[in-house]
Amino acid sequence: MKYFLCDSPALKRYLIENPHEQGEVKFLQSITEKNMNVVDVGSYIGITTVTMAKKVSKVYAFEPVPEYFGILKKNIASNGLKNVNVHRLAVSNREGTTEFYKEGASSSIIFREDANKILVSVTAIDTFIAQEKIDRVDLINMDCEGSELLVLKGAEKTLRENKIKIFCEIHHDYLEELGQSVQDVEEYLKKLGFKVYGVSLDDLKLKEEIDKPEYIYAVN
Predict the structure, then answer these.
(1) Distance from the CA of 85 to the CA of which of 64, 65, 117, 140 falls in 20 to 30 A?
(2) Is the distance from CB of 151 to CB of 137 less than 8 angstroms?
(3) What is the DSSP track for 144-169?
(4) CB atoms < 10 A from the CB of 33, how many?
(5) H helices within 7-86, ranges in order?
(6) What would the pLDDT profile of 35-52 be if each residue is shown by its tens digit?
(7) DSSP helix/strand/coil, 122
(8) What angle separates helix 9-17 from helix 19-31, to the nearest 10 degrees?
(9) 43, 49 in Cβ contact below 8 A?
(10) What is the pLDDT of residue 28?
């Protein structure tokens, strides 16, 4: 599915057939609130972006791949959303450019020999928040395929200064290729005062044991 309308029968069927995305949507619906400002890292075509934007005050969405970015903008427009600020940027711990590798529906900084290599612009959350003069961030949603720790390190000031929730998909193999692990992510967040839980989309229950969770959920 590329294009969709929120709450349409077609999207509902798609989510039933794709429990991974369905679990994400359900969990985000459970943690979002009306007046939230949300940073959405790795928006792809916008299913979670639109889900959150229907409920919260503002979404700042980031998608670096031109193909996905174009679809994302169309899905936001077709759903009549005026509260989404969209940026064709990757998010990391620095500003500049980086090589991205797109393979099928996946894209990341992790080298793949058969992938399509593209050069994308990069920002850090702290830099973006300062440039845009955003007064607060309430939730960061992340699907960044290996850049989890880099994104969070680039948001340290934001994480220290806001009462904030983090929902993050964990790509264990990609983290390992960068010499990192979910335990590194957990340790970093705990040093900033966060309580970190593992999340399984099978039942959406929070688990305090961090081994190889599909997702983590963190609150300070």
Answers:
(1) 117
(2) no
(3) -TT-HHHHHHTTHHHHHHS--EEEEE
(4) 11
(5) 9-17, 19-31, 47-53, 66-78
(6) 999 999 999 999 999 999
(7) strand
(8) 110
(9) yes
(10) 97
Beta bridge partners of 62: 41, 87
Strand order, beta sheet including 90-92: 90-92, 116-124, 96-103, 106-108
φ/ψ of residue 29, rounded to 5:
-60, -30
Contact 128, 122 (CB under 8 A): no
Q: What is d(CA 72, CA 47) in angstroms, rounded to the nearest whole number? A: 9
Question: Which two three-digit tokens encode residue 170?
Answer: 């964990």
Residue 143 tokens, joined: 């699907």
pTM: 0.95
* pLDDT tens sequence across 83-131: 999 999 999 999 999 988 887 777 777 777 787 889 999 999 999 999 9
Query: Which CATH architecture best describes the domain 9-89+135-219?
Result: 3-Layer(aba) Sandwich (3.40)
DSSP letter for 69, please: H
Residue bearing tokens 């929730």: 165
pLDDT at 124: 98
